[in-house]
Design brief:
Radius of gyration: 20 Å
Distance between the termini: 35 Å
Number of strands: 17
Helix content: under 10%
Number of helices: 2
Shape: globular
């Protein structure tokens, strides 16, 4: 939040969708001269507070869990519960580690779990009978339509934010749910089995929107799932690389189409 008395907009609020902040929930603030340190549940940012409205005033680091790839490699599955091999990752001269994004149980007694890990090649998925809707369709004129805290439309990737290149999601942008269907992500709920967790495709993997209409969603998610006993993740802090040529949020064009 920035307070500048005497200006046209004296109170400006910076959050997940209108700033480069790394993380959804601010937990710590510390002022050191011209630098404002902002700690979140996903990392930390050093911000030149007098230029806070400019992207180049932000320097951020995010928490990342890295795990060494075993020599024999690991088997990737396209979804949490899938038994079919989707791809494999093996160490090479360029990559010896993989980033672990999340851990989810395969059953309700937590007898086995899988890690979601980054996968540069990604997997394509089409979600049948699910698409986008405008906020006015959901809430009418009750004041949420023009909120800059919301994306241009409501869709399955609502919890991801556009960073100028892809849709991304941090640790603290996932709401834990221990009594319902578990954390919400990209999934096909038509195949839901109440005896098992939701067979989710992605919870934190980056998203690329391929096609979105009012009744269908096609996207690529850049992650896969691996049996948790194959990796030993360790926490590190890595610098955030902001897109050099940020592109417009593709949801803006979708919103225009839906309003026609």
């Amino acid at each position: 939040m920035a307070y500048r008395p005497g200006t046209a907009n004296p109170l400006l609020i910076y959050h997940l969708r209108n700033s480069p902040i790394v993380g959804a929930i601010v937990s710590h603030l510390s002022l050191d001269g011209e630098i404002l340190w902002v700690g979140t549940g996903n990392g930390i940012c050093a911000v030149g507070w007098q230029r806070i409205e400019y992207a180049n005033a932000w320097e951020c680091w995010r928490v990342a869990l890295q795990a060494e790839l075993p020599v024999e490699g690991i088997t990737l599955y396209k979804s949490l519960l899938s038994g079919e091999t989707g791809a494999s990752l093996t160490p090479d001269y360029e990559t010896e580690t993989v980033e672990v994004l999340w851990e989810s149980p395969l059953d309700y007694d937590f007898s086995a779990t899988r890690y979601e890990v980054r996968y540069a090649s990604g997997f394509a998925v089409e979600l049948p009978e699910t698409g986008a809707s405008t906020w006015s369709e959901l809430y009418g004129d009750r004041g949420r339509v023009d909120s800059n805290r919301l994306p241009p439309v409501n869709w399955d990737g609502l919890a991801w934010r556009w960073n100028g290149e892809r849709f991304v999601r941090g640790f603290d942008a996932i709401a834990l749910n221990y009594v319902g269907l578990g954390p919400a992500g990209i999934a096909n709920f038509q195949d839901f089995d109440p005896e098992r967790p939701v067979d989710v495709y992605a919870l934190r993997g980056d998203l690329q929107l391929d096609r979105l209409t009012n009744d269908s969603t096609s996207l690529t998610y850049f992650s896969g799932w691996v049996d948790a006993d194959e990796l030993v993740p360790r926490a590190s802090l890595v610098p955030v690389q902001f897109p050099k040529s940020p592109q417009p949020n593709p949801l803006i064009a979708v919103a225009k189409e839906l309003r026609r």
